[in-house]
Amino acid sequence: MLRRHAKIIRLIETVGEVSGRKKLQKMVYIAKHLDMDFDERFEFHMYGPYSEELTLRVDELCNMGLLDEQVETKGAIHMYRYTLNDTGRDFLRFHEVDFGLGEQAIRRMNEENSRFLELVSTILYFNHLPYEEMKAKIFTFKSKQRYTEEEIQKGLAFIEELRELTKAGHTPLI
Amino acid sequence: MKQPQLLDEEKVFKDPVHSYVHVRDKLIWDLINSAEFQRLRRIRQLGTSFFTFHGGEHSRFNHSLGVYEIMRRILETFEGRIHLSYEEKLLCLCAALLHDVGHGPFSHSFEKVFRYHHEDWTRAILQGDTQINRILKRMGEDFPKRVAEVIAKTYDNKLIVSLISSQIDADRMDYLLRDAYYTGVNYGNFEIERILRVMRPGEDGIVFKYSGMHAVEDYIMSRYQMYWQVYFHPVTRSAEVVLRKIFQRAKELFLQGFPFRQEPTLLLPFLNEQVELADYLSLDESVILFYMQLWRNENDAVLKDLCARFLDRNLFKYVEYNPRDFRLLADLKELFQSADIDPAYYLEVDTTSDLPYDFYRAGEDEERIPIMLVMPSGELTELSEKSEIVQAISGKRRFDYKLYFPMDKVMALPEELSGKIRDRLGVMEDA
């Protein structure tokens, strides 16, 4: 009951703040690929995998007063920042969510910017394709982002790093 | 280039929404006759809405033919305005016809419990060992993959993708008109003829002539009304809750090693989480209803009760729920437990995000391409900048939280306990 909501809140609590709607979308998508138990359905959109369900759920959490959403406007660009408030923390007391080792991967993802996470999630979306085909898809759909092959390699290495972090037996670096 | 393979004469299906569905291509005719497409006759388009609107029994087969017909008419409108090869036109028609072929029985609830996405099955049906795959391959080895890419929105021609998936596309136009027709409500109606007449091919997708703005406004309003009046109807949501609980209970019992009186053979792959394409295709709503009939006589009190509720339409009642009242839920869980009513199966909060509301947004988070109008000057303008009606409803969130519970079970409890629960729920009499 409201577990799907609790997972999103817990993710935000884990990192303290998520800057950007796109970033939050990509973090949840990547987390799903790391076998973290998120339920939201994703489809391919303009900026890669995108979940309408997640957008609605975050809106709902703000409406419920569990998340704070701050909007910063720089020219035509709006940046949304999400943080947990006291009511949200209270809510979590009634809904236990444990990502286990996934928490480290969530923190690591939050260190990266949304442009890079967009690339990583797009790589994962086309992961079933042979490398050359996957690369071609990224260059076609992400032409405006001008990703380089070097960045794709960095994205693949990042995915491996996250997988390592979520493997049992990994010792967290403190 | 592949030559058109046409039928000797055009075939038509009588259709209550579009009057007729016209088929001229042999390939389309063969796809319709494939086993995987015929299976869609046994899957309702609106899931459990028939409990609320008894006319809403139409199938995904009806809808898929309707989307195909709208696509066929869009392509007619585009004749002379943009060049599409025969192969590209067929790609559009196949994607329209097959876009829902991966749907399973009561897919909204079933997918949630058994954790899969029908989109993955659509891809598997198009590209796996199926009749549909063999028919599509007649257009070329990679044709099934290209159709799958159009449906998954990963095809590189944005215009073609937008015809089947955008904020005003063949899929949405058909389901709004069809669902309105079969449920008997008036809200979903809009003038599709006018919309098709003012639709134009654009660089990044379809656009609409400014002169047709009012027809597009009407479509947006229909969508808004249908969501709140039909798709979000609280009784339909109650049936979905009961259905979800049935699947959840069956799964739980299976994991506990419960000895079912008759092994649920066709569901075992799902319970074991090892589903092959053939297993998936053998499932439809008649199979699910058959197991419910068996389970209503099972030895498990929860499973038999939930199945009887669904089959006899003895659904859960609901009250409005304040999502900030965490204490209420915790208290009710305790009270239900003390009454020996398992809250995991008999108490559920249902929220609007459990059924995504497909409202029109002007693309504020830049993920959805907005509806664009072509002004007389040739300039493109986003719809809500010109339409006050659309501006009034676009991007406006409405939220709705309901708490579902079995009123009859609560009423059957000893007066003191029943009174306490009803007091917390805020219902003092059987609603």
Structural class designation of chain A: alpha+beta
Work out the number of β strands of chain B.
9
CATH homology group of the domain at 6-233 in chain B? Hypothetical protein af1432
**What percentage of amino acids of chain A are in beta strands?**
5-15%
- Going across the major beta sheet of chain B, what is the strand order? 3-4-7-8
Instruction: Describe the oligomeric state of these chains in a short phrase.
Output: heterodimer
N- to C-terminal distance of chain B: 66 Å
Q: How would you write the strand order of the largest sheet of chain A?
A: 1-5-4
CATH fold naming of the domain at 6-233 in chain B: Hypothetical protein af1432
User: What's the CATH architecture name of the domain at 6-233 in chain B?
Assistant: Orthogonal Bundle
Which term fits the overall shape of chain A?
globular
Q: Count up the helices of chain A.
A: 8
Helix residue percentage of chain B: 40-55%
What is shown here, in short?
Chain B: It holds the Pfam family HD_assoc_2. The complex is a heterodimer of chains A (174) and B (431). Chain A has 174 residues and is of the alpha+beta class.
Give structural notes:
Chain A: This is YwgA. The complex is a heterodimer of chains A (174) and B (431). Chain A has 174 residues and is an alpha+beta fold. The mean pLDDT of chain A is 91. Chain A starts with a helix and ends in an 8-residue tail after the last helix. Chain A has a three-stranded antiparallel sheet. The longest helix of chain A has 18 residues, at 149-166. Chain A contains eight helices and five strands; from the N terminus they run αβαββαββααααα. By secondary structure, chain B is of the alpha+beta class. Chain B has a domain at 6-233: Orthogonal Bundle (Hypothetical protein af1432). In chain B, the strands form three sheets. A four-stranded mixed sheet of chain B has the order 3-4-7-8. A three-stranded antiparallel sheet of chain B has the order 5-9-6. The A-B interface holds A 1-2, 4-5, 21-22, 25, 39, 41, 43-47, 50, 52-53, 55-57, 59-60, 63-66, 78, 87, 90-91, 93-94, 125-126, 137, 140-141 and B 112, 117, 119, 152-154, 156, 323-324, 326, 329-330, 347-349, 351-354, 356-358, 364-369, 397, 399.
